[in-house]
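Known limitations

Files may contain more than one protein. Parsers should not assume a single record per file. Below, a two-record file is shown to illustrate correct handling: read the sequence, read the token line, then continue until end of file.
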Amino acid sequence: MLPFNEALRLWRLERGLTQAALAQRARVPRPNLSAIERGRREVSLATLRSLALGLDVRPGVLADGIAPGAGAQHAWSRAAMERIAEAVVRGTTARQPAEQAVAELLRRVISHPNPASSRGRGSRRHDARASATAWVLLQSRCAPGELRSLLQRIDDRRRR
């Protein structure tokens, strides 16, 4: 279960919508949507319903913090985790599409490991936001132990 603001952002990204597009669909001012996604504004029941309608999901999905694809976590085999780690370190393509998706997310997280440290404008802040989004998506696709194992395998390969 994710915080409401993170679930909202992930659903918006999953639907391929910009903040402006979702704000228009949900009839919510874009600055308000931005504040909601950053966790700086509470939502009313009416706003929750509007956002859910704009995203074409049940309001309970957002309220319960259910990420897109939740419940679709893979039980990664050792071999799959080795292939994912290898793809991340070498910058190659993984064998399976699901493995490749996780490898790409891991690359984003590793390329900017401390999103909280980025203050300011421009591409640095965008990179930090992309890294934070990738981390949340990884948590929705991998069990915590698998995620730790993948990060350890990547670290081990980089040290070789």
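...continuing to the second record:
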Amino acid sequence: MKQRIRHNLAFCKLFKRSRSNSTSPSDVPLSFIRNPLRWYEHKLDTHPLVTKCVTSGIISGSGDLLCQYLNKSEDDVRDYDWTRSLRFAILGSVLVAPSVHVWYGFLMTRIPEQSVKAIAKRLFCDQGLFAPLFLPTFVSCLTVLEHISEGINQNSLQLTDESPDFGSHLKARMNEVPESIVVGWKIWVPSMTVMFAFVPSKYQVLYSNCVGFIWNAYLSWKTHEGEGTSEKTLSD
């Protein structure tokens, strides 16, 4: 009899534990509303890459919308270019987030120490090696997406060097990359120093996305100050 009672008590404890650990679809929005930071942290633990991709896409697209807003003059009657923001969101999700997720993980694995020397090594690898390679890649992908969008608008998906202004457009942007890298170091070097020194690994992609949001908005505003146009962005 005692053995049966112990068996029933153990079953009840196991049932309660499974109920407490399970989350129904209705619990998800409630947990997000009650404690969004804890909900986000949980998603980083359970689905790290997907969470970072979604977050990066939202921040990248929102950053471009802010750029367009800051560069819009009072007499500018043009609507927001939602397609342009969508391109930034796509690149943020499928290019930026996966790339920096793998890269930061590699850096923290290869140089795991938190000494000043280790932080300096990670900073040099990130801004001295990764950034000069990644920025041209981002600019190239952005230019390709722009001309694909133009092709879709013209009922043609063909993208060749003979596409209208594709070669010259890409070349002009590539010529501006070295200057953009140098200007970017003024923002990214101190920001990445803080990140490598204090930000936990699972939050590093989110941190870099937030810095990128501010950087895009500022540089776009500074580049087009007084022009009343929203044709260019950070990567322009």
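Parsers that stop after the first record will miss the second one. For reference, the second record is described as follows. Residues 18-27, 223-236 have pLDDT under 50 and may be disordered.
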